[in-house]
Amino acid sequence: MRFDKFFNPESVAVVGASRTFGKAGNVIVINLLNLGFKGRVYAVNPKADTILGLKAYPDVSSLPEIVDVAVVATPSVYIPEIMKDIASKGIKRAVIISAGFAEGGEKGRLLQEEVLTIAKKSGIRVIGPNTTGIMSTESMFCTSFIPIESIPPGNVAFVAQTGLFLGVLLETILSEEHFGISRVAGLGNKMDVEDSEILEYLAADEKTKVICFYVEGLKKGNARRFFEVARNVTKEKPVLLVKSGTTEEGSHAAASHTASLSGNDQLFSAMCKQAGIVRLEDLEEMVEAAKAFVFQPLPKGRKMAVVHYTGAGCVMGADSVIQEGLELAELSEETLQNLRKITPEWHHLSNPVDLWPSIEKSGADTAFKIVVEGLVNDENVDGIVVAIGVMRGFPLKWPDMKQFYGRKPILTAVEGDRDKGYEVVKRLEKHEFPCYRSVQRAIRALSHMAEYSTKK
């Protein structure tokens, strides 16, 4: 695959490598060494002999080999000459971390055009500028200038027009979530390499099962190509997308951030729908949807069941099912008969299922097992959301969910005590049952799965 050397290079040069902690060129080298990058690392800095134990070379031309990727982290004014040096060495891939290009006004735009002209003349493909660049857990290649201690491997890829994914958001995922990451591509100003090209790469990537995009805009000449590629990709893999710059003020902010033109938002949504892309409102919703897709099987339809331990939770769950464009499944008579065995006679059984009367009669473990088992076996039910209340004074052995895995999607809402709840979340997500802070958020994630599966 033509972009594989960007993600899994055998050798890399860090141009602008630094001995000063906190500078981009210092942190990039630290990350490559600490994460265990499998390839060879060369530091380029004319003012140093060694950097972090690596021999420093005065320029790219002095390197002992033609590296697969040059990572450039210097002030933008020096980059045209650096690109000429990269070209003369015969290097064909560059990740330009530096800002100060088209996002900064006319002077920066001209500088960006100059760099692109050099790249095209020499056949160099460029990711960036104005980005944290690339990460791949297969090779542990990482160009981020944010210190990263570890990255768990997994099957979710992120493509972003910002450095956010190799910065704060990655830290959030690492500290709060339990799914792993395959690749990250921060495209920045998208001077050369575009969204559609990375999407094609990830479509063929065996390590990636779910593809997530954050975009601020698509260039006029590339938007059609992106949606054409997406239409084919979504037949095999879900593509989740957040687009910002939907207001006039947001559009202005996007222009100053990555020199992007946001365009007509209604048209963009229509194109996403035609291409089978699941469009989401924000990054939190994207993360919540991603773990549902990567952990659970897709629903076969839109008929869902909700289980809650309170009547109010059942009412709010019913509202959310309808509001998210789903349907409440009509439980089969066989399911209802099994539930009546553990439920007081006075309680009217329906969907959503109020678990508390059954807990009072039969105990929490028995009630939970029989209710969930009944819904899993019910052919009328395409997907299930289960709420779990965690209270300090109410120790429970349940939920034992492993026996239910794989037959239909089961998403869980873990509510109550934060510390005890987090222990439940860790146990459930270890077995690939995605957890959420509320029934509404779980239903929202399940609705995205249904949206994708019913149009696939």
Give a quick rundown of the structure:
The chain is an alpha/beta fold and 456 residues long. It is built from 16 helices and 20 strands.
Please explain how this structure is put together.
- This protein is of the alpha/beta class.
- It folds into two domains: 4-292, 3-Layer(aba) Sandwich (Rossmann fold), CATH 3.40.50; 297-455, Rossmann fold (3-Layer(aba) Sandwich), CATH 3.40.50.
- The chain is built from 16 helices and 20 strands.
- The protein has helices at residues 4-7, 24-35, 79-89, 106-122, 168-176, 195-204, 220-233, 248-258, 265-275, 283-295, 311-323, 333-340, 356-362, 364-377, 418-430, 439-455, and strands at residues 11-15, 40-44, 50-51, 54-57, 69-72, 93-96, 125-127, 134-136, 141-142, 153-160, 181-186, 210-215, 239-243, 278-280, 303-308, 327-328, 353-354, 383-390, 410-416, 435-436.
- The chain has a seven-stranded mixed sheet, with helices on both faces. A seven-stranded mixed sheet has the order 9-8-11-10-12-13-14, with helices on both faces. Strands 15, 16, 17, 18, 19 and 20 form a six-stranded parallel sheet that branches.
- Strand 3 (50-51) and strand 4 (54-57) form a beta hairpin.
- The protein is elongated.
